Predict the 3D structure of the following.
Amino acid sequence: MSTSLAASLALFCSLPPLLWLALRDPKRLRSLRRQGSPPANPGTRRLLATIVALPGIALAGLALWPPFLIWMGGITLAGWLFAQALAPNRPRDC
Amino acid sequence: MIPLSQDRTKRLLAIHGWSAVSLGLLLYAVILTGVASVFSKEIADWSSPLPAHVKNPFSAGTDRMLRDFAATVDPQYYEEAFFFPRAGNRLFAFFHRHERDDSGKLRDRGVAAEFDPHTGAVIERREGTRKEIAETDTANALAEFLIDLHVRLHLPNPWGLLLTGLLGLAMLVAAVTGFIIHRHLLRELFTLRRRGDRLLTARDTHVIAGTWNLPFAFVLAFTGSFFSFGSAFGIPAMAMVAFGGDQDAMIEAVIGNSTAEDATPATVADLDAIIADVRQRSGAEPSFVSVENWGRADALITFSMNYREGQLLGPNYVYSGATGEFRYAKPGLGLAPSTGSVLFELMSPLHFGNFAGVVSKAIWFALGFAGAYVTITGLLLWTLRRQDQLGWSRLTRATHWVGYGLPLALIASAYAYFPARTFDANVQAAMMNTFLLCAVIAGLTAAWLHNPGTIKHALLGATGVGLVGLPLLRILCGGPGWGAALDAGLPTVVAVDATLALGGGLCLWNLLAASAAQTTPPVMPDVGGTTAAATDGLTKP
């Protein structure tokens, strides 16, 4: 399997749970003072974090180091971008 | 504890702040130029393409090309020869001997040439020391300008390398201390508060980028320091301790090939056949070829290869130069595999991010950008918090000057490059002078405008206009237009043009958005004595 394909597949598996973690993050929701979106409970968050990490663990276990590095870089960038994108631009957005 | 008067304490605090921020701004410069250097190959291909795309710089005919060139070179320069691809996949060759300058420092002197692998024609031939040849290079000058700024801040050796090595260590320290002082690292991974206190927003913006970027900040700072200190301090120190100061002997023992000397003249074997063999043996393309003792019976040809698909490591391949016979595969360090060699070889892919082509480079580019963003937002946060004090207010302006003025000065150097090359002027001097002139103008602008938000907008606007206009200047100075580039199989030219235009557009869009926001009534109170305009540079990244 090519490096790009393996990294893309791993990111495809990791990004949705990461986005879910961001959307249901308790402190983020608390800072927004939103009523409608309940935060995820600790057990769910741990499970989602494990799902996020699993593709990376699999790549490392298979010694696929180039896709692992791309996956790790992609996850860190996506986490940063999710945090930026989900923050309201103005107070009236909240 | 030394008893100090209030005045003296204030003065020392100001010195402390200025020195820390100055170091931080230099670190920002190193990171930002490193971000651009990730795509140095693409920048070189974009700025100096050959008339048609060269898919393979080591194409069939390399043997004839190099053999004909070697026949024109004084045999005193047969001691060593390098061949490797450069801008537009020109094949660069340098036949040279090792000598010592007046101060006893080792240097290479010889004859270099750049070939068009399509036609086999010599594009340019230059003679002199390696430094002299590099200084008269035009095809790669723009990319090299960025790389040299990143590697040694254009300072002479070893001072530039020592400084960038220290900055790498400072980045490591900042990452470690940031990790320790931030108590809610995991809990605040997604918390970016943009309501209420603007300084809180600035703090969150810095902390979130820093937290997510932390693993790669470690990796990039460590590997960067390794490269800087390795060549500036490590190699001379090791040579002094173990080889009586003889760096040649040390490099040969640690990296080089060992072979019995045999100066008997011998025709060099068919290079095309050797290249075909190494391709088959390694499953990769050559990236760098060195020939020791060209035209002698003891000639050795060593191939460094590009990364194989799915691999971060791979051996070098050594052939007999006289017979063309495969001799052995060797690791990066020594002649036998070792943990030290693996660690040494890992430094390159981890620092340069070039192990999976454009995909890994794009990720490393973005990670580097995040690192520069963390650095500058940290400095802005630090200075803005204290800007009510006179000294710190100047530091705030200095931070805006470097933060937004450096990208502008880098673009200005490209504006000097294309016309200077077209009119056969000294390209290196033109780029450096324009870079410095632009930096000075940006500094004067920052001093004149006072307000950090206004400084940001002025410099960001100029950067946006500069980026959008750069493709146009390239074409006006004789570069291929988009249609011609695509017809010639040069998609990199179009891709870089489009990326520059997009980057410029984003700068201008950011500026327009900020202007629109300024015309609407303020919705947030100023907190902590900081005005909205003063923190503008932080709250609208």
